[in-house]
Amino acid sequence: MKHLRLLPLLIAAAYYTPHAHAVELIAVGSLSSLGFDLSSGTGGALENGAAGNLLGGLGSGLAYAGNNTFLATPDRGPNASVYNPLIDNTTSYIPRVQTLSLGLSANTSGKGLAFNLTPTLNATTLLYSPTALVYGNGSAGTGAGLTLGAGTPKLNDAGHYYFSGRSDNFDAGKSSANPNNGRLDPEAVRVSKDGKSIFVSDEYGPYVYQFDRASGQRINSFALPASLTAAKPNANGDAEIAGNASGRVANKGMEGLAITPDGKTLVGIMQANLAQDAKGTVRIVTIDIATKATHEYAYQLSTGSGVSEIVALNDHQFLVDERDGKGLGDGSKAVAKQLFMIDLNGASSVDGVAKLNAASPSVSKSLFLDLVPLLKANGYAANQIPAKIEGLAFGADVTINGVLNHTLYVANDNDFSAEAGDNKFFVFGVTDADLAKAGASYVPQSISAVPEASSYAMFLAGLCMIGLTVRRQRSEIFKA
């Protein structure tokens, strides 16, 4: 099948003159956070009163899937409203994948950016396990004092055990890495080489799971190094931090996930340091998809308070999104939203190292793109730049004035909150000259074409109709 990423999207924009060898903002699009998604049966009110099919948080994770198709993962759902701090105000929102069309078209108006971007929601796929999961009971054990109903999703049936954002949905007798826990906080998503499945990283475990792209069924689980897990999980983040001297810090688990262009290796990155590691020293974990073997590397934060995403440039160089929490949605002015280029070639692993500090061997890094001054230069006030810049994905190439540009899509997580604005998608043009200046190169991921989620049901329905016709014809032949 054709590898869609290798087919450049050739769109002329002769009126537009980019700066020589400098990454440029070429398009911006928005998708309203006040609407609803396309899930079925999730429209009822959650514990905090929000709708179970509320559309939002789309930039928590963003992945390219070929042509103009992208996949976005909201995180654990709307939990900005305070209703029960004992479970960090989380709800029974079912984690899901949103299939989007992010269509670029040339802006021929002579004003503004080189391209128009029109985001469209095409499908919503809920994530579930075919085998039973552990949920909280809302009143005892892991949920002591919660006085809530059980955390079991109402949509559950035999063979469909849906994951949930509620923080009490876990087995208190096991570590946070128990793959049978029902709680899931998806923070990043990537598409497999064959296009048929997706990989999702999470903060609760942390976990890395593989799901069937069409159905949302979990089909694989990857065991991460034991150093990342919390031995004593708790429904309340502060209590969990106080109860564990090692492992990921609550709400700062595996925030970013990349996949190498050959589709063989996943590269996950933690949002912040583990409890036992020095502040600012973050762990990177590579996962061989075929063997499940892992290796760890250290990354040192520069200006941001944490890492939100990682995306592959090639099989050893990656862009890391390092940011603060300032900007639109925080009621403050954005300061640090920077993309650093790192290189795993020649990096020393920290496999089995119990504690990391600033002196631990770390991956090399260099600043590649400083988003705040670039967005301010394009008319965005510092208090209008989204606080949570979290999603990164390379899309189809475009041509501007005869120069090939690799499109880098950058999205925000608005936490399902109107105060944080719409789900925004910023598109930057990155040339080979830009990359060469950083000592980097770009290799697109090979993704085979599969039916898009919006047309998959029609495709299956068509097969069923064909099957019915064949059976009907056979029956008539036998009757004859």
TrEMBL record:
<feature type="domain" description="Phytase-like">
    <location>
        <begin position="55"/>
        <end position="416"/>
    </location>
</feature>
<dbReference type="InterPro" id="IPR027372">
    <property type="entry name" value="Phytase-like_dom"/>
</dbReference>
<dbReference type="InterPro" id="IPR015943">
    <property type="entry name" value="WD40/YVTN_repeat-like_dom_sf"/>
</dbReference>
<protein>
    <submittedName>
        <fullName>PEP-CTERM protein-sorting domain-containing protein</fullName>
    </submittedName>
</protein>
<keyword id="KW-0732">Signal</keyword>
<dbReference type="Pfam" id="PF13449">
    <property type="entry name" value="Phytase-like"/>
</dbReference>
<dbReference type="InterPro" id="IPR011044">
    <property type="entry name" value="Quino_amine_DH_bsu"/>
</dbReference>
<feature type="signal peptide">
    <location>
        <begin position="1"/>
        <end position="22"/>
    </location>
</feature>
